[in-house]
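Researcher: Going back to the complex we discussed earlier. I've cleaned up the inputs and rechecked each line, so this should be the final set. Can you rerun the prediction on the complete assembly and write out the structure?
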Amino acid sequence: MLTVKDLVKKYPKSERIAVDHISFELKPGEIFGFLGQNGAGKSTTIKCLTGILPYDSGTIEICGYDMKTEPIKAKMNMGYVPDNHSVYEKLTGREYVNYVADLYKVSSADRTERMDKFAKLFRLEFAMDRQIKSYSHGMKQKICVIAALIHDPKLWVLDEPMMGLDPQSTAEIIAFMREHCAKGNTVFFSSHNLDLVKKLCHRAAIVNDGHLIDILDLAGNEENKQKLEEIFFKATGTYDARLFEDYASQESADVRPELPVEDNASNSDEKVEEEK
Amino acid sequence: MKSDFSFQSVKTLFKLDLKSRFGTTQKIGVKNRLMQVSNYLFFAVVYAVLILGIVYLSKIFINKANLEIGFLTLSTMVTMLLATAISTGTVIKNLYMNGDNELLLRFPVSGTEVLVSKSIYCYIHNLVVCFATMLPFYITFGVETHAPVGDYFSYIAVILFSSLLPYFVANIIAVPVMKVMNYVKNQFLLVLIFTIAAVCGAFVLYMSALSSIVDYLTEANKNIFSAEVIEVYQHFADNAYPFNFYAYLINGKRYADMSSGQMALNFLYLLLINGGLGALAFFITTKAYYRTILYGIETEKTSFKKKVRNRKRNVFHAILHKEFFLILRSFNYSFQYLAMACAAPFMVFFCSRLAVSMGTKSIGATIMPGLMLMIIIIFVTIIVSFASTSISREGNCFYLTKVIPVSYTKQVLTKFFLYSIVAIVSVAVCCAVTGGYYTQPDEEGISVLSKTDVLSIFGISEMVVMALTCLSMWADIKMPTFNVAGDGELVKANKNVALSMIVGMVVAVAYGVFAMVFSLLPFNIGEWHIVRMNNVSDIYVALSVVSAVLLAASATLMFVKLNKRYQNIAP
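Model: Rerun complete. Updated structure for the full complex:
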């Protein structure tokens, strides 16, 4: 479904190689997580494979189409949700989704059916005919998701998709990711949420400083699932025993700090002093 | 928001404001520093040219027309009206529309403190404008009339005093203007129609007035400094209240034989006018400021509802449709592009009419085709310059143009089609209206333009329109300027707009001068000769060939390696 081979990307006027010989392959029906710290190269990789950024060397193939030689066919099979949820704010939600549907040559019947389904699913029916300018952060994210899915893409790429979404919408997106993959499609998403990746993904890749450190099998490997946090912290070079224990204990223990005990007697004393 | 008032907070806010406008904490490179210095130099040169113009004009009025106090009144009036217009814009932009209002409301400062700090900036801006425009007039006046040294001090005092009135008026006007702007926020078509009507109306009025003056001077065989015309100026200046009171303040005794009592009375009138308007401005602003900005913040996201059917369009139509609505639903864009495109035929027609009445009478009808060609290209340049932001205007959504399964060439071609078609239609209407009017024979059976002239001008202009559109888009693809803040709208013109305007103006002047000069002069290049107007086809052929070459070159520039250049754009 998606094959990335020896991908190298260096930004102009920068000494650092943002993506350094990264290779991986995504299978049909798979949910693939892409993990890494801020600035590790996750978004750059995603921008290269969606065609936003040119890359220096390597190959990217989507459904067998090379991104450099057959970009239109490759893009036709992909839906992308950006991390900054940028959309044409002067259009209404429906106008925007229709515009994207036109570009992907979706028939009127299909787009109507899908638009109604997704608008209902993400509880955006009331806002579809309103200008996007009036949308909240989460609503913009939802309209991006709807636009990315309107052509029923084989590969669905999401860059930190859950940011700013309400719990209900997060749950709906997770449910839809599962549904999408069950039909033989593939989902590729970057995230900082290790817990979500652990529960949802079949496999996950960890990148650090432009390098692919490891690809972990999460579907059939309980140990990887159990130790994902530890592996991540170690792979990214941020492992600190005390901090990690703190992080791990957060899942089981109550980590709320104690509320200060109100001392009524001393408070009233202070008030008296102030009044004086 | 706290409710008390502290000068310390005002001072801090004012310093913060200045720092955000002029201060920079980042080190800028040599290239940028050079750009900055060249910008300052350019500004200094423009201002120097303006001063030279003022000095030249002032000398004529003072020495030739012998208008002394009348000149002071007229120059004070013009500069104060200009200052009022600029000040109104500054007040609206800084007090009501500035994006930092929401930010400042979160700080522990009161609305009054924010208002005062911003008002100080607006007033200082207004004061600088008053000094920059009035002082050259006054100093030239002083030099030319050998004014005593004391008068120079009174110039400064009068400028300081006269800077108040434009500021007060601007504050009074700003609130209703803002109310109207809030009211018509989402009435895009209405605003566009109103803008077109306003632009056309103002231009027609201006040109009609100018034309009447030219006709009056020509028909009555009077020049602008004949005794009767000077008397009209003087009469107008004598009745130009309250601007003449400011002029009398300078040295009414010397220039208008006024008594001290009369001068004191004039000063009292001015004090009353300023006091009244100042009080009104204070009352309106303090009452309306907080409410207006709060309303602006609260309704910033209000939008319209529009039900559309889920209709399938082809890719070309879809991009065209989206592009058009993004322009129509933005005040800035629809004014810059659609309003100007609609108003251009009016402007070309009235400019040509004035040019005909002036040019043909002084030089002859032979220059008319060249003049019309120049006027059309100048106005079309303004419309076409909009294409030089075609990529930059994508802003935050630029990524989408890379992700969609549509080739970059197709996307750019669709945009090229939209931008050139509007200009092409505008040129066609310009030629139809102006050509239709001037191909009609007069009483003697002679027409100013022939059908060949109109068709040739049309053909040449259309080629220039497409060439300029290609060049503008090429410049933007080469170096786009994305605004990634807010809604991504480009409010300020970027360097590509300036470049396309300059190229357009140069082409317009070059074509116009070429056609005008060679329609008057016989010209030979070896065996080949371009002859006079009775055989203008050679000029048209020459310009058509140049335009075709220009079009081919600019199209090549834009489309060759387009995919690679587009792919390399990384916002």
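Model: Worth noting: The interface with chain A takes residues 186, 301-308, 310-315, 317-319, 321-322, 325-326, 329-330, 395-397, 399-400, 402-407, 487-488, 567-568, 570 of chain B (CB under 8 Å).
Researcher: Good, that matches what I expected from the previous run.
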